[in-house]
Write a structure and sequence with these properties.
It is a single chain. This protein is mostly helical and about 350 residues long. It is about 70% helix and about 0% strand. The protein has 18 helices and no strands. The longest helix has 24 residues, at about 1-25.
């Protein structure tokens, strides 16, 4: 009887010690349950007079190694691809906040595969700060992916320069849509165009801004050709500065300008104004000469046929070639300063 009581007391001492070991060394609930069942089986055996043996799964060696394995697995999963995915998610969220649609964001992120998503966000942010809406920014980047190769500092400097030209806020929308290369072209090329408009054509600062805004195509024109087109408009056609700007005259090719103007002139439907700006006939508006299709020009302005105009264009081209071979030039050789001095003298 005394031996039985001693066995019961030993069993009660073993239970709390064993359960404390189960809780301490079992990190997962499922494994804890299996171990508990095995230990209870051993305890039951022990309570029946058997020996309590150490379970191999309870040993400290296994559970010291397993967390290390899990740590290695986590480290392997932390690859650059996962880092890029997190950056893409962050950039996509920021673009959504700016007002871009999901479709736009997906296309923008695929414009230049492999590019740094954060760099894409920085470039777009600079355009948004210029007062542009998401739509024109999206169109510009799709049309000219080279913009993404620019540094943020370059975009900032060019933005400051464009603001000085008066092309901030909404005015830059049309320029960026028609000629996004205004951000990628060399600074000295822009300076050359602006210098011709100011110094050779004598446009005011506001007229330079309006010219770049209305016809940004002048940025791709050779400076000497731009100057020649202005001289043709001013001297041969008698068009003043304000009308040149408003009619977007400088965006048309010199070939088109000469063909339509000279054809009307030889038909007697256009006359160069005199020094006082007067003509004996009523000249058609510039928009009715240049801002219409050829069919509309012939039907409503020249009142002529397509065949007659084609013959004239061939004759004009032949005349231009002959003049070029002889080294002759048009009578636009006068300087703008002399012409304005004459006008000032007449007013005085």
């Amino acid at each position: 009887m005394a031996a039985f009581f001693r066995q019961v007391l030993d069993w009660h001492r073993l239970v709390p010690l064993t359960w404390a070991r189960v809780v301490r060394e079992s990190p997962q609930l499922g494994e804890g349950r299996k171990m508990a069942a095995a230990l209870l089986h051993k305890l039951t055996t022990a309570s029946s007079g058997g020996d309590l043996q150490e379970l191999p799964c309870v040993g400290p060696v296994k559970y010291m190694k397993e967390p290390a394995c899990r740590m290695n697995l986590v480290e392997k999963q932390r690859t650059p691809v996962d880092g890029r995915s997190l950056d893409v998610e962050k950039v996509a969220s920021s673009l959504l906040d700016m007002g871009f649609s999901d479709a736009h964001i997906n296309e923008l992120l695929s414009v230049q595969f492999g590019a740094n998503p954060q760099h894409l966000l920085d470039i777009i942010s600079e355009f948004i700060l210029l007062g542009l809406n998401p739509e024109p920014v999206y169109v510009a980047l799709k049309k000219s992916p080279q913009l993404l190769k620019l540094s943020v500092m370059h975009v900032k400097k060019r933005s400051i320069y464009l603001r000085k030209l008066g092309l901030g806020e909404g005015k830059l929308k049309r320029v960026l849509h028609s000629y996004p290369e205004i951000f990628t072209m060399r600074q000295r090329d822009i300076d050359d165009i602006v210098r011709v408009l100011k110094e050779k054509c004598l446009f005011t600062a506001q007229q330079v801004t309006d010219t770049l805004h209305r016809c940004p195509g002048v940025l791709r024109v050779d400076p000497s050709e731009l100057e020649y087109k202005f001289q043709y408009a001013y001297f041969r056609m008698g068009v003043k500065h304000l009308d040149i700007v408003r009619s977007q005259f400088l965006q048309y090719s010199i070939t088109k300008i000469k063909q339509r103007h000279m054809y009307l002139e030889r038909l007697g439907r256009y006359q160069t104004p005199d020094k006082k700006g007067q003509t004996q006939i009523s000249n058609p508006l510039l928009k009715d000469i240049f801002r219409v299709s050829e069919a509309e020009f012939l039907a409503r302005t020249a009142y002529s046929s397509f065949e007659e105009f084609e013959v004239f264009k061939k004759l004009l081209a032949r005349e231009e070639d002959e003049m070029s071979d002889n080294g002759m030039s048009d009578d636009e050789g006068e300087s703008l300063d002399e012409d304005e001095e004459d006008e000032e003298g007449q007013r005085l």
